[in-house]
Task: inverse folding
């Protein structure tokens, strides 16, 4: 199994990387971890003439906290680095837990959080929890920097808002009032399995009133889907088991799953119902987990 | 569209420390770390299985962390340090994980063993006393079609006990 030939470019700065991408257009692809891209190239699903490696851009690695901004995750941070990061473990263990549902240990040492987003697979595990926490994507291009909500980052399977000369540089989880969040995934195995359905939620509780609720569904629409109607079932209400039950049903109805090798649309709808209820209950009762 | 005729393929110098020894090679950009280790440096203990990052037979430690060498380009590993199964023994004495695999019958056909042992060793390096669940999670990316995993898990747990 052979990786098709390409020209290997190693920029020394983010600006140089963007310039190379702009220069080569659709013939170039960004190489971050490579756990998706190299597989696609071996399978003949991608045949870039140029790979722009980010390996020397250390500024895209790691997690830091900036007061007034929030937790900033470099796009080249690997999943295992996300899982082990003390700042995330303290503030948003739900992000670490979501990363831990992915693939297997070796792949989590290779794959990066930026790659997981830019690849834009409908079943990707990081987007739902990041959207639930209101995360933003810092995008750098030849013309400068812009910030896009992760919620608005995806256009369709494999498609994002990134322009040809743009690179996803960082993810920002802003300081927030949420009191709980989590990601619940159902895969056909515990490891090495894509989500059949994944549900992330966050809640902002004031006593037993849900001041705000976010419910994000993965693998049941072309892009991570905000279950707006289900959110409205709970938003501003006093939470009860009945209301959570109802939110699950509403989320199942508004989801748009397809039949595929991992599950039928009908099965997925049922999973959305069950997982939404589980996720909401945990977010309300257990905090950020 | 006219494709440019490729008259020559550019090669890159890659310097790699493998099991403590520095190696230098001239590789094409599309060479994987796995092929560099096996074909250029003769570290054939690293096995080639699915080549898509599913089976874990090609597992090596890159700067101490287990990775699938079939998914990493050799040029990306330039300047880094790799440990293969050939590098685990100390002065001819097997690593405790290797020893435990032998004693517990955790090796049948042996094809998964190098990757399995390296995943086990990496686990014990970061967590000297794992639970059975933690062992199973650590080797979730290493497929074995012979043993049913029971003896492999036993062996890694036994090697952990031998640590204490």
Result:
């Amino acid at each position: 199994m052979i990786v098709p030939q390409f020209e290997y470019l190693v920029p020394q700065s983010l600006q140089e990387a963007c310039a190379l991408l702009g220069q080569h257009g659709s013939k170039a692809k960004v190489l971050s971890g490579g756990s998706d891209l190299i597989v696609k190239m071996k399978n003949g699903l991608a045949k870039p003439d140029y790979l722009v490696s980010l390996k020397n851009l250390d500024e895209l690695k790691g997690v830091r906290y900036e007061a007034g901004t929030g937790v900033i995750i470099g796009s080249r941070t690997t999943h295992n680095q996300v899982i082990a990061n003390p700042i995330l473990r303290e503030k948003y263990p739900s992000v670490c837990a979501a990363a831990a549902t992915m693939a297997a240990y070796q792949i989590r040492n290779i794959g990066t959080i930026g790659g997981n987003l830019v690849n834009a697979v409908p079943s990707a595990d990081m987007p739902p929890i990041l959207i639930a926490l209101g995360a933003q994507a810092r995008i750098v291009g030849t013309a400068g920097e812009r910030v896009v909500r992760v919620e608005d980052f995806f256009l369709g399977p494999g498609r994002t808002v990134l322009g040809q000369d743009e690179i996803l540089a960082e993810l920002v989880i802003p300081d927030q009032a949420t009191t709980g969040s989590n990601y619940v995934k159902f895969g056909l195995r515990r490891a090495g399995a894509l989500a059949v359905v994944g549900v992330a939620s966050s809640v902002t509780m004031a006593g037993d009133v849900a001041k705000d609720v976010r419910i994000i569904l993965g693998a049941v629409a072309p892009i991570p889907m905000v279950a707006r109607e289900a959110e409205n079932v709970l938003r501003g209400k006093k939470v009860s088991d009945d209301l959570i039950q109802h939110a699950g049903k509403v989320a199942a109805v508004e989801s748009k799953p397809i039949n595929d090798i991992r599950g039928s649309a009908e099965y997925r709808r049922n999973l959305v119902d069950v997982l939404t209820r589980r996720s909401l209950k945990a977010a309300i009762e257990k905090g950020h987990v | 569209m006219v494709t440019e005729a490729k008259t020559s393929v550019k090669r890159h110098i890659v310097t790699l420390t493998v099991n403590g020894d520095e190696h230098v090679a001239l590789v094409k950009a599309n060479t994987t770390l796995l092929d560099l280790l096996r074909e250029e440096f003769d570290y054939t203990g690293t096995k080639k299985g699915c080549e898509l990052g599913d089976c874990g037979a090609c597992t090596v430690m890159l700067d101490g962390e287990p990775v699938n060498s079939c998914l990493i380009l050799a040029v990306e590993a330039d300047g880094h340090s790799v440990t293969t199964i050939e590098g685990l023994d100390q002065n001819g004495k097997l690593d405790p994980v290797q020893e435990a695999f032998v004693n517990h019958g955790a090796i049948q056909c042996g094809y998964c063993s190098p990757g399995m042992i390296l995943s086990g060793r990496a686990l014990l390096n970061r967590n000297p006393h794992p639970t059975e669940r933690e062992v199973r999670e650590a080797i979730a990316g290493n497929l074995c079609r012979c043993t049913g995993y029971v003896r492999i898990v036993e062996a890694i747990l036994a090697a952990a006990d031998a640590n204490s």
The CA atoms of residues 29 and 51 of chain A lie 5 Å apart. The longest strand of chain A covers residues 195-206. The longest helix of chain A spans residues 265-286. The two ends of chain A are 41 Å apart (CA to CA).
